[in-house]
Amino acid sequence: MIRPRTGLLALCLAVPMLAPLATRTPPPPTTRAAPPLTTHMPQTVKTHMPQTLAAGTSRAPQAGAGAGSPAARPVTPDGQWQHSALRLPEAWRLSTGEGVLVAVLDTGVNGRHPDLTGSVVPGPDLTGLARAPGRWGHHGTAMASLIAGHGHETPGRAWQRGRVERASTGDPRAAVAGPVGVVGAAPSARILSVRVTLENGDPLRAQGRPGNPGALAAGIRYAVDRGADVISMSLGGGDGSWEGSAAEEEAVQYAISRGAVLVASSGNDGETTNRRNFPAAYPGVIAVGAVDRRLRVAGFSNRQDYVSVVAPGTGIVTADGHGSYVMGDGTSSASALVAGIAALVKGLRPDLSPYQVRTAIERGARQRSAGHSPAYGHGVADAERALREAQRMAGPARAASPPAGRAEPMGRPLSRLPVIAALLALSAVMAARVLTGGRHSP
Fold first, then answer.
1. Is the pTM of this model over 0.85?
2. Which of 13, 165, 189, 340 has a CA-to-CA distance to 183 between 20 and 30 Å?
3. What angle, 0 to 180 degrees and rounded to 10, lies between the N-to-C axes of helices 246-257 and 215-225?
4. Of residues 40, 83, 95, 106, which has the active-site annotation?
5. In 201-314, where does DSSP find H-type helix?
6. Per-residue pLDDT tens for 109-166?
């Protein structure tokens, strides 16, 4: 049974924080703020992206070239292993998400980050709480960069205004070597920022100030009414309840009925309680788990029957503050990447319904087990294969796309001309008989 819940959405972070990639003063640890928030525990909805990396270590490229020069040498796309794992370069031949609006329901997005400039549409703050300087937007900016980060310019090759600048070969994959910084799964998409929760390390959590308990449901409806094609929710859990919320489920169904695709992280307490996590468990939501570089399910990733697919979720480099970067683990990152894949599908086939987009992603996944499993879902997400599945669903000869959420059923005839011609012929025969009968009457 669905029953209302109260409390604050919280970020789903899975592992302890390290040091920042850039040479800067690190924010307070986000996973140690309060015991209930370290994993997917009750009382909050958590975003899933912990852990930053110390500059100078060997686990990831550095964001700073030296002391006093934060973000002087940002992480390059070569350090983003999710690109090859998801086959994004191959997918970009077909779609980069141009014309697609992705709502990021999170802690807020910093549109001034160089990897997101020109791509962020500011939305409301629905938490009902003040935004303390330096304590908002870290997680939301990270997720937005994985969805629609475009890096920033270098001579000759760059992502500009959400479009791929092709190299002399005509292959958009060559452009990946151009920008520095984070390049997301759908670099031509736009981001709608809607703040619905606090950072895990925000002191307001420890003070017991829950904010607006209906922020997530209100955020979903706001995003739909503003034309969002995809809604990304890298968060989960709830205050004292793991049965979900009636208001949230109604908002989810409202979004689906209006043609919006919803994507959520499966949760980060796979090694402990492994509870059902909402909004991921609501019907119709694409629930995403996390895998490591070997494409093995991460220990922290929740294993539930509602998991749709899995995606890279360990050692993921993301944007953070203004010009800085972090590396983290969690199903948050995996979910954001799949939201980006959904944006690629909508960019290629805007006529597909949310169910069809989900089906394309699930059918395109590379299976790691026989059939569906609670750990892998339908398999590891594959952007290029998802787009191929979407092409087959939409049909190669369709000239015009119906409105989102109103796609014609598969196999429906593309033309009614034969039927119309037959009806006209029948009418002509009947008219001829009437005329003939009139001529032979006495």
1. no
2. 13
3. 10
4. 106
5. 203-206, 215-225, 246-257
6. 999 999 999 999 999 999 988 777 677 899 999 999 999 999 987 544 444 434 444 4
